[in-house]
Design goal:
It is a peripheral membrane protein. By secondary structure, this protein is an all-alpha fold. The chain has helices at 13-42, 54-89. The chain has a domain at 13-73: Mitochondrial import inner membrane translocase subunit tim13 like domains (Helix Hairpins, Orthogonal Bundle), CATH 1.10.287. The mean pLDDT is 84.
Length: 101
């Protein structure tokens, strides 16, 4: 037990690797959902041209911005709720972030 760590153990390198891998999976999932959602909304299934036209490009840009904004807001709300729940349980160092910082 460390005086400065307030009893909280530092994550092992294996735990750090698992956390990063989980984060990478979440990012890949977010990208895949964004791609499917925005392509379905903005790009017609019957391709007429090899390149995106201006309307499709603008639609994809706006869709991407809205999707990422919504994802960020949801993440912030979930983080706040997680901190509130761990704060209510009295867990020491509950708001330490992914690597205890």
């Amino acid at each position: 037990m460390s005086l400065f760590g307030m009893g909280r153990q530092q994550p092992t390198s294996e735990q750090k690797i698992m956390a990063v891998e989980g984060e990478m999976r979440m990012m890949a999932d977010t990208y895949n959902r964004l791609q499917k959602t925005c392509q379905k909304k903005c790009v017609p299934t019957d391709y007429r041209e090899g390149e995106l036209n201006k309307g499709e490009a603008v639609c994809l840009d706006r869709c991407t911005v809205k999707f990422l904004d919504a994802s960020m807001k949801i993440g912030e709300i979930m983080q706040q709720q997680g901190q509130a729940m761990s704060g209510a349980s009295g867990a020491p160092g509950a708001s330490g972030g992914l690597f205890g910082s």
